[in-house]
């Protein structure tokens, strides 16, 4: 851990240091002359407020959050230490289990339901933020409200999209991204037949988040579900599930063979190297392309996931902020969250994140400075969360649906079939058995 001295280094110089993923930096709460400042009832009294945060592929996201935390700490007589790590979920699980360690953390998906009894009630803060900024999207409440109480703040979601090469599509006579899954299979077939870089949507256990984004979205768009609306009755064994798997089989047959082995970064690397024409990812891949592969960047765009017989349905990749109940600095942590969720802070984060951090508050939708309003390639991503769902839909978000997500049951159901490890019926049966154990059916 690197710690910035409260008296031996100016804040300006400290913030000029490299603040990248996996690096923990204590942000000194002092003025340029090294004198301490205080913030009244939420003063840290010279202590540190610590947090585990999600690492992204956009370094500017980390740098801005560090600077924002430093600005808050400067008036609260202490320091804020934020650790950005790829393994943040595993680290948070360890903190929750031991009831010791960091004060706060960035949760993923519906983890608030898993850890609810060890998270601080943030209901008053969340309701006031919603009233101020146009109201929360429904999916935000689904993710963070447990038994009527907000156990986390739905800070933002990562807009998962299909990143595609406009120049390669043009070579097979396609100028717009297909709006249906069957249309995507048709384009993928054209690319394969033309011996051009192929479609490559990750579907493997090694790439759980990218894979889940497609697996759940495809399943739902065909009218299938892991559980009924009651949140108890396992419903995966259905004709709709078989239709969704058949679509994935058809797509896989004309896709790059690596789709069943990609990890979370493998598809990014292949896309940036020009080896594939389409892959699912956050728009952070475009951010990287502009710096590392400018020829790719100028010939790529972003599209929503296609529709199926049940319309456009999409998994929302949630990022929420929570305070662990073992923290000795709950009030300062709440105050920090209030500051970070202020439009002056959250708005700046959304601007630089290129939809990697998209607010779940409706008041941001029409702001001219938001990426979907200021960048033509991102125009179609406005309000993506409006039709989005949490794992377990159409049942309610729950501890059980979160566990099924963590088990990768839906991902593995698709992956077993396209990798040839199991037939359709067997793979559905395995998924059904796993889900019944989770949901108690």
From TrEMBL:
<keyword id="KW-0813">Transport</keyword>
<dbReference type="Pfam" id="PF01547">
    <property type="entry name" value="SBP_bac_1"/>
</dbReference>
<dbReference type="InterPro" id="IPR050490">
    <property type="entry name" value="Bact_solute-bd_prot1"/>
</dbReference>
<protein>
    <submittedName>
        <fullName>Carbohydrate ABC transporter substrate-binding protein, CUT1 family</fullName>
    </submittedName>
</protein>
<comment type="similarity">
    <text>Belongs to the bacterial solute-binding protein 1 family.</text>
</comment>
<dbReference type="InterPro" id="IPR006059">
    <property type="entry name" value="SBP"/>
</dbReference>
<keyword id="KW-0732">Signal</keyword>
<feature type="signal peptide">
    <location>
        <begin position="1"/>
        <end position="28"/>
    </location>
</feature>
């Amino acid at each position: 851990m690197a710690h910035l001295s409260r008296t031996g280094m100016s804040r300006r110089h400290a913030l000029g240091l490299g603040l990248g993923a996996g690096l923990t930096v204590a942000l000194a709460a002092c003025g340029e002359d090294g004198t301490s400042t205080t913030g009244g009832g939420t003063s840290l009294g010279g202590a540190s407020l610590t947090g585990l945060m999600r690492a992204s592929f956009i370094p500017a996201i980390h740098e801005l959050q560090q600077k924002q935390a430093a600005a808050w700490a400067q008036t609260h007589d202490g320091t804020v230490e934020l650790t950005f790590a790829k393994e943040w979920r595993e680290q948070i699980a360890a903190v929750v289990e031991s009831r010791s360690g960091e004060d706060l953390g960035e949760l993923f998906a519906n983890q608030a339901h898993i850890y609810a009894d060890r998270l601080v009630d943030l209901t008053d803060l969340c309701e006031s933020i919603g009233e101020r900024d146009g109201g929360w999207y429904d999916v935000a409440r689904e993710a963070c409200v447990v038994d009527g109480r907000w156990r986390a703040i739905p800070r933002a979601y990562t807009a998962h999209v299909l990143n595609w090469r406009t120049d390669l599509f043009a070579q097979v006579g396609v100028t717009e991204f297909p709006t249906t899954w069957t249309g995507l299979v048709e384009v993928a077939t054209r690319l394969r037949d033309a011996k051009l870089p192929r479609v490559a949507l990750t579907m493997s256990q090694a790439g759980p988040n990218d894979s889940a984004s497609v697996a759940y979205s495809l399943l739902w768009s065909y009218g299938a579900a892991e559980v009924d609306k009651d949140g108890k009755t396992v419903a995966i064994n259905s004709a709709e599930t078989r239709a969704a798997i058949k679509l994935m089989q058809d797509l896989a047959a004309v896709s790059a063979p690596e789709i069943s082995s990609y990890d979370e970064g493998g598809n990014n690397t292949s896309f940036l190297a020009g080896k594939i024409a389409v892959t699912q990812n956050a728009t952070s891949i475009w951010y990287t392309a502009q710096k590392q592969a400018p020829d790719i960047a100028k010939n790529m765009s972003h599209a929503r996931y296609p529709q199926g017989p049940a319309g456009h349905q999409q998994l929302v990749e949630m990022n929420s902020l929570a305070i662990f109940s073992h923290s000795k600095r709950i009030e300062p942590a709440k105050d920090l969250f209030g500051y970070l969720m202020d439009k002056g802070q959250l708005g700046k984060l959304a601007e630089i994140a290129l939809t990697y951090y998209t607010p779940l508050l409706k008041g941001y939708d029409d702001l001219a400075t938001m990426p979907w309003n200021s960048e033509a390639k991102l125009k179609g991503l406005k309000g993506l969360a409006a039709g989005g769902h949490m794992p377990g839909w159409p049942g309610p978000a729950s501890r059980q649906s979160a566990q099924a997500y963590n088990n990768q049951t839906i991902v593995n159901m698709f992956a077993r079939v396209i990798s040839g490890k199991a037939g359709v019926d067997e793979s559905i049966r395995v998924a059904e058995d796993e889900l019944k154990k989770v949901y108690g059916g």
